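REVIEWER CHECKLIST
Item 1: Sequence provided? yes
Item 2: Single chain? yes
Item 3: Sequence as submitted:
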Amino acid sequence: MKITVQSLVISFVIHLIYIVGTLIVGYIKTRNYKPDIANKWEKVETLQNEVAFGVVGSPLFFLFTFIGVALICRLIIRRLLS
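Item 4: Structure as written out by the authors:
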């Protein structure tokens, strides 16, 4: 039981680092973006009306990856303890 709880916590931490890292990279790219208006003047394109930050995906995908990473962590912990 203790190994299962440890593997779930490790899986949660890995997923949290991934999601927070994605948000931080998006934020840094947004803050450092400098549009090149002078070279884009001749070719005008319609812009989007909405902006999305983060990861767009199915909640089932995150559930399956969470369980998969937890199982892998459980195997690694069992190998290290035996």
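Item 5: Key structural point noted by reviewer: The chain has a mean pLDDT of 87.
Item 6: Recommendation: ____
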